[in-house]
Design goal:
about 140 residues; mainly alpha; 3 helices
Length: about 140
């Protein structure tokens, strides 16, 4: 009986030895290390791709916003330049009208000219820009 028990114990020990040896070789095989490394590298690359896509979308959105702001600025600058160009002609016309009025009427009342619409728009635009870039 002891002989059978010893034989079985030896057989189990030998089978366990070869199984564990095979298991350890398989887990530490050189071929397995590059696979694990490649999986980790692929995960890192996927994460970098997601981050890059998100960042590029944010940049594209900001570029769109800046183009809109630039178009509005160009429009307002064009309006302001037209206003500045027409101002000397308007001043001349007003002074001629004033001279004509002085000859026909007593002392005119001096009124301060209100700011032009373009100047008001430019002031509002610059205030909006300050608020946009300060936040």
């Amino acid at each position: 009986m002891a002989y059978i028990f010893s034989s079985l114990a030896l057989l189990v020990s030998v089978v366990s030895f070869f199984y564990l040896r095979f298991f350890v070789k398989r887990r530490t095989a050189i071929e397995r290390i590059p696979e694990e490394t490649q999986e980790a590298v692929q995960q890192i690359l996927d994460e970098i791709d997601r981050i890059t896509d998100r960042d590029s979308q944010l940049v594209e959105e900001r570029v769109k916003q800046l183009k809109i702001i630039l178009a509005e600025t160009d429009r307002r600058i064009a309006t302001l330049s037209r206003e500045v160009e027409s101002r000397p002609r308007r001043d001349t016309a007003y002074s001629e009208l004033g001279k004509a009025r002085q000859t026909h009427s007593p002392a005119p009342e001096e009124k301060e000219e209100p700011p032009s619409r373009a100047a008001l728009e430019m002031t509002r635009f610059l205030q909006n820009q300050n608020e946009l870039f300060s936040s």
